[in-house]
Amino acid sequence: MPITTIRTELRGDGVTLVADRWEPASARKGIVLLLHGGGQTRHSWQRTGIRLADNGWCALAIDARGHGDSEWAEDGDYGSNAHARDLVAVAAGLDEPPVLVGASMGGMASLLAQGDHGIGRALVLVDITPRAEPGGLAKITSFMESGLAGFDTLEDALDAVVAYNPHRRRPPRVEGLRKNLRLRDGRWYWHWDPRMITYRENTDDHAEVREARARAAARAVRVPTLLIRGAQSDVVSADGARDLLELIPTARHIDVGGAGHMVSGDDNDLLSGGLLDFLDSDVAYTHEVTTTDYDSPHHD
Asked: Would you call 298 helix, strand, or coil by DSSP?
């Protein structure tokens, strides 16, 4: 029986979040939350979500606040702390602790939510660490700012994506990009709130504060953790990966060859394979679960 995509709504911290849900046909091994990067939508996780369900996991790919079909924040709060609060609210509505799988922005939110609140049974960071490379972050910001005026055609949007990442192994297609854009007044605009770029916590002036906050959260993580890094990433360097492993000594690390920062788009198949290996070896239930299995920084 083919895996069905189920559109659902979840309660965040003062906002309604839209998600795609995939349920396994067999006994469920657990719940995986899939969190996208800044400027993306839940659709970037579709192939991973289906593959997880095929392998016994319930997967929920969530549009972050201000992205895709989720609500925009009335106060324009798109800092990592707000995204983390949304994850805490979502986890509170589930019937078991989820596995948190976050790329870039979604990974930082996952790290903060896990470090501060211990909401998950495992943590997977996709090309994000507390120590991020300023040059790579600036490139992302520049790309996002370049699209604020919209595009005449979908093909123009595709050209912009290819120019940003010309070495992507599997170039995006126009029809795939359509899910991430909306037609308004004859022009195509990315489907996210532009206030995200200018929100004070996301500016360069707060870089040191953001890093210190992330490092403190990482030190508090007690669950199985995996870093999946794009081998060609300009955001997470080899030194950044080593730094994370020092902050979370029990963490594991794999590189995805041929992939850049947006690993889930560059090589989704390899990402899914490494993720499944980790889930089945380190996370899948092998015994009756009790609350003590989910250690948090508040319980030593």
From this structure: coil
Q: How many whole angstroms separate alpha carbon 30 and alpha carbon 289?
A: 11
Q: What pLDDT sits at residue 273?
A: 77
**Cβ–Cβ under 8 Å, residues 131 and 240:** yes
pLDDT score, position 289: 40
Which DSSP string corresponds to 33-87? EEE--TT--GGGGHHHHHHHHHTTEEEEEEPPTTBTTSPPPTT---SHHHHHHHH
pLDDT tens-digit profile of 11-22? 999 999 999 999
DSSP reduced 3-state for 105? helix
pLDDT digits (tens, 9 = 90+) for 196-254: 998 888 887 888 999 999 999 999 999 999 999 876 678 888 899 999 999 999 999 99
Q: Which of 227, 237, 226 is nearest to 122 (CA)?
A: 226
pTM: 0.88
Pairing type for strands 122-126 and 225-230 reads parallel
* Strand partners for 189: 182
Selecting from 3.40.50.410, 1.20.120.530, 3.30.300.350, 3.40.50.1820, what CATH number does the domain 5-133+206-282 have? Answer: 3.40.50.1820
Cβ count near 25 (within 10 Å): 12
Rounded Cα distance, 85 and 110, in Å = 10
Compute CA 288 distance to the chain's CA centroid, rounded to the nearest angstrom. 29
Give CA–CA dist 298/296, Å, rounded. 5
Distance CA 230, CA 83 (A): 23
Residue 136: how many CA atoms within 13 Å on its side-chain side? 19
Q: What is the pLDDT of residues 150-188, one digit of tens each?
A: 999 999 999 998 888 766 666 677 887 888 899 999 999
